[in-house]
Design a protein that fits this description.
single chain; about 80 residues; mainly alpha; elongated
Length: about 80
């Protein structure tokens, strides 16, 4: 396990102490959890659960294009 030394102003230290106490965690665990959350490389579970959440009646691309609206002219490449 690695160690990190942080130099913080007294107001920030007081806020960490209060937050860790409220969470019933050590200051070290509280800071580590905060870092894990802020550096996560995965979507939160609440967002991942949204995949496929649309109802089956979501219109197909053919239906959307067939509604009489013409496509906008595109700029040449």
């Amino acid at each position: 396990m690695g160690q990190v030394t942080l130099y913080l102003d007294s107001q920030t230290v007081a806020r960490i102490k209060a937050a860790a106490k409220a969470a019933r965690m050590s200051q070290s665990k509280w800071v580590a959890e905060l870092i894990r959350k802020r550096t996560a490389v995965e979507w939160p579970a609440s967002i991942a659960r949204l995949a496929g959440a649309w109802a089956e009646d979501f219109p197909t691309l053919a239906k959307i294009r067939g509604q009489g609206q013409s496509e906008q002219a595109r700029e040449p490449l």
